Amino acid sequence: MLGLRKSDATLLLFVVAITILAPFILNPFPTNSAMAQFNGGYPDLMQRFVIFGIFAIGFNILFGLTGYLSFGHAAFLGVGSYAAIWMMKLLTMNVIPAIIISVIVAGLFSLVVGYISLRRSGIYFSILTLAFAQMSYSLAYSVLTPITGGETGLQPKNTDPRILDTLFGGGGAGGRANFFGLDMRDSYFWSVGDWSFVFNTGYYVAAILMIAAFYLSIRIFRSPFGLMLRAVKSNQQRMNYTGLNSRPYTLAAFVISGMYAGLAGGLLVAMDTQVGAERMFWTASGEVVLMAILGGAGTLIGPVLGAGFIKYFENIVSKINESILQGWFAALPDGLSDFMVAVIYPFIGKGWHLTLGLLFMLVVIFLPGGLVEGGQRIAALFRRKPKDNDGGMSAQATPAE
Amino acid sequence: MSNFQFTRRGLIKAAAATGAGLAMPTIISPAFAQNQAGYTNAPAGGTVTLGFNVPQSGPYADEGADELRAYELAVEHLNGGGDGGMMNTFSSKALKGNGILGKKVEFVTGDTQTKSDAARASAKSMIEKDGAIMITGGSSSGVAVAVQALCQDAGVIFMAGLTHSNDTTGKDKRANGFRHFFNSYMSGAALAPVLEKMYGSDRKAYHLTADYNWGYTTEEAIKSSTEAIGWETVNTVKTPLTQTDFSSYIAPVLQSGADVLVLNHYGGNMVNSLTNAVQFGLREKQVNGKNFEIVVPLYSRLMAKGAGANVKGIFGSTNWHWSLTDEGSKAFVKSFGEKYGFPPSQAAHTVYCQTLLYADAAERAGTFNPCGIVEALEGYEFDGLGNGKTLYRAEDHQCFKDVLVVKGKENPTSEFDLLEVVEVTPVDQVTYAPDHPQFAGGNLGQCNPGA
Amino acid sequence: MDAIILQILNGLDKGSAYALIALGLTLIFGTLGVVNFAHGALFMLGAFCAVTLSRLLTLSHTVIDETKTDFLGNPLKVDMPYVNDIFGPEIGSTIIDWSVPLSILFAIPVMILIGVIMERGLIKHFYKRPHADQILVTFGLAIVLQEIVKYYFGANPIPTPAPDVFRGSFDFGAAVGMDPNVIIYPYWRLIYFAFATVIIGAVFAFLRFTTFGMVVRAGMADRETVGLLGINIDKRFTIMFGIAAAVAGVAGVMYTPINSPNYHMGMDFLVLSFVVVVVGGMGSLPGAVLAGFVLGILESLASMSAVIDLIPGINQVIIYMVAILILLTRPRGLMGRKGVMEE
């Protein structure tokens, strides 16, 4: 199918199914139940899942295939975002020009940074990309304030020119990001019993792009070009000795992954029309590294899982506060409930960083292949059992390689 | 959020059409209810949800924690618990201790991380998932401006927390956003007369300014108001936000011939730059035959604590301080202190006031509709919340009230007793025209009820 | 001219902090081949050793002072440190005043212990893993360590002043007969510089003149051969890790009076210290020290207002620009050995 071999096609279908059905999968608990706290199926978080999924897929094309660890990828996302918001301010609130320009600008910027940084490898490469990203961040936060809005960032305003929108009449859906009139923030609600599901326009626009991005990444992984990149990872020196110049290949991978980051940046603006400089800070670059590693670098599906995992933590676990916790254990006897609250409290709410750090360490130590490896190990456990349930496993067990 | 809602009939039809056999009894979840009231997240049932969006990680986490304490206290008081705090001293008597409009107040919390992206994500989850009708909190102007714009779009009210930049109610003001905290201009206007009295009108000032929006507006405000009393500005130098060691910026100050150093820094920047400046022995120096002085335009007690003994004798301004002796402040300090064991910070005070003001506006308007609330708050005059007579000005949604000029205390009696109030600058002195150049370029726009 | 002299002085002081952290990082990289992203966290832990000791010294019992009232109008509770009870108020308050220098004695064993536990418990398992994994696991560790500190000490900076006698500043100008007030520098920062020089000297002397150091140096050059000679190089490397941690720790202790410590101070230094290491040359100890001072001085010069007026924003990016320039023109860094990690 679509030029994919069978296992890849299954994986793609699996991803398509998950993204389409995400509103159901992410809202498994009835709205009024205590567990509703854990529902992640609201538009903003679903959008973030797929957008950061794109970001991580792109990062994985560079890191997973070539082994070049870029510590400055957030800069491309940020540059893409700034380009997108300026398109919205100047031309139109339609998201298409914004997204296209964000990919182009991020691609050009990554071409420059990549051309310079790829002259070195290993930790030197990481430091070079880090240096570029930190410079972008510092300048965007301060000196470039007229262009970037500095600390307060940029948002569309009523006073923006929006040439195309005025040309074709109307303020472009009242100054909201739209896709030919379709407001990104429109949602359809469907309540079934106590459950409630949200279908958001913006989410599906981003989801389609993510599926496209995912498909493209499968094709890249399986192409001769992908093979070449893997050769760079396994032994660049030997490759160079054979007379092959690997740099054009790595540069191409770098630019592609920069464009993915730009696409993610543009989509972030399309869903939530605002840019702040801190999305370029080095910890944001670190975050995408965490996503890729946590999910499983070098695998196809891993980065997407990692992105979902981290964003879920950031948005759901950080919102659990002490009173909610007390609510959970209210049924227990007093002493026990206080004890449970005291034990769990440091790890949730404002302590979510601690939990994330611990989990991350555990994954790096015990599951170098990330969550995908974890899934495979579990799958292997089942497979060893005499009962043959291969059929049920195929979707889970075949993520990438 | 949405402009679209399945009616029950439409839903049944849709379900029947898909033939999925899902035509079970359907209930529109309250979290997403966009009922006939015609505004976002109209509360259904007996509760109303407020969203408290404060920094819980990052350098301002302690300030955020104090805000959260005040919010919880406010919710307790609104629901009729505790001793009622400032509800008893508040000039409006609309609040009865039975929630807001008879609905019990519930709240959700989120972490802004002091990043505008994270703050918006957290606010969006409160609006989209938890059905919050009002968002409040924050500890920096970048976050306030970003979340304010979001709330304007989404059609909920934003009651700003600690944000001091002129832009929040100037260039970036929004109809759905309200600020109780004071701003850079007010700091300048309140400080200048006191500085003139203490240090004379023939002074040369050297500014170190945090290199981002809040720093710029504060520098501008302090510069223009001190130049108005005859001071000369020798130099202004921008320092990077991520700077931790300010020695290379402080070392040249004495050579410049300046005799006053103005530190337009907040938070960790302020703690470090002040510590460094005192380390350099600037305060023991004599320049132009005068004692060298340091000024910190925006003081916060939590941060003063970080700077320790270095704040002694240094002037600055603050929105509120627990040592005030009016009835409102006393009542607030008492109920906060008895609950948590230490006095509240100015951040806690401003968010407590904001919560009460919102609740009161809803009571007086008789609705949670943002447009009703905007109408109730615009031009509203009140008293008894610790700052004396206060006006929520209609033109820019900024509170106008007395501003405190404070000084680091020489002999603190406890770890909370770090600042002493030198002067309460009357509101007239800090009032400015809505179209003042430092606030120009903004447009409130129309209130947006969403839906 | 005075301004430039002053900034060079300043750069030396800034540079001494960079150099100390980079020295430890290089020790770990050179001996163990591990890229330690938790090194900033070790610096931070050192600083919090000082905070902890000052808390321990001021452990108090409360005495109710009926003459004063607290913020709620109740009688004021005054803390009386036990130290005062034991040694009398005079000596007691002197001890509390000197808590930062005293913390060095406290921090060295604590940090060596932390370092050894870290190496044995975690880093050891990562010798054979790729650099990327090492970076990631130590990065995770750094997050965990700083969150733990935040849990116990809060997010606000905690003031830890230097002893009273070291407050204020020394007037160089007046000392050499120039105008007073032109070149002044705080005593404590001068002490920090001197202290850094002593520590750096001690580490070099230790590696140069002791048998232990000789073995370690040999191990750095060729681990396998040293192992084949029947020397337990692992044990020595563990000790080196402890020493590196202690260097970072005491650098943190002495830094506390300069800037009030907070839980994320390590992250603030982390990126910078890596730039320093790379500019100096991966694995080169003298390079790390030299680069620390050079970057400190450059950063200070770039923050002069005359320079900022000329090139706006230069103070924000100078370090990174230097790093990029060095890496492109001289990838082995200022003093890296030819051929080591050069590509």
From TrEMBL, chain A:
Membrane-crossing residue ranges in chain numbering: 9-26, 46-63, 94-116, 123-144, 201-221, 248-269, 289-313, 325-348, 354-375
GO MF assignments: branched-chain amino acid transmembrane transporter activity
Pfam families: BPD_transp_2
Keyword RNA-binding annotated: no
Cellular compartment(s): Cell membrane
One GO CC annotation: plasma membrane
Coarse class of the protein's main subcellular location: membrane
Membrane topology field: Multi-pass membrane protein
Keywords noted in UniProt: Cell membrane, Membrane, Transmembrane, Transmembrane helix
InterPro entries: ABC_transp_permease (IPR001851), LivM-like (IPR043428)
Protein name stated in the entry: ABC transporter permease
Organism: Ahrensia marina
TrEMBL record, chain B:
Keywords attached to this entry: Amino-acid transport, Signal, Transport
GO biological process: amino acid transport
Domain of life: Bacteria
Transferase keyword on record: no
Gene3D superfamilies: 3.40.50.2300
Signal peptide from the UniProt entry: 1-33
Any single Pfam family the record assigns to this protein: Peripla_BP_6
CDD domains: PBP1_SBP-like
Domain Leucine-binding protein: 47-409
Protein family per UniProt: Belongs to the leucine-binding protein family.
Name of the molecule in the record: Branched-chain amino acid ABC transporter substrate-binding protein
Species annotation: Ahrensia marina
From TrEMBL, chain C:
GO cellular component assignments: plasma membrane
Keyword Membrane listed: yes
Primary location: membrane
UniProt key word GTP-binding: no
InterPro entries, alphabetized: ABC_transp_permease (IPR001851), BCAA_transport_permease (IPR052157)
GO MF entries: transmembrane transporter activity
Pfam families, A to Z: BPD_transp_2 (PF02653)
Membrane topology of this protein: Multi-pass membrane protein
UniProtKB keywords: Amino-acid transport, Cell membrane, Membrane, Transmembrane, Transmembrane helix, Transport
Coiled coil spans: none
Subcellular location: Cell membrane
Protein name per UniProt: ABC transporter permease
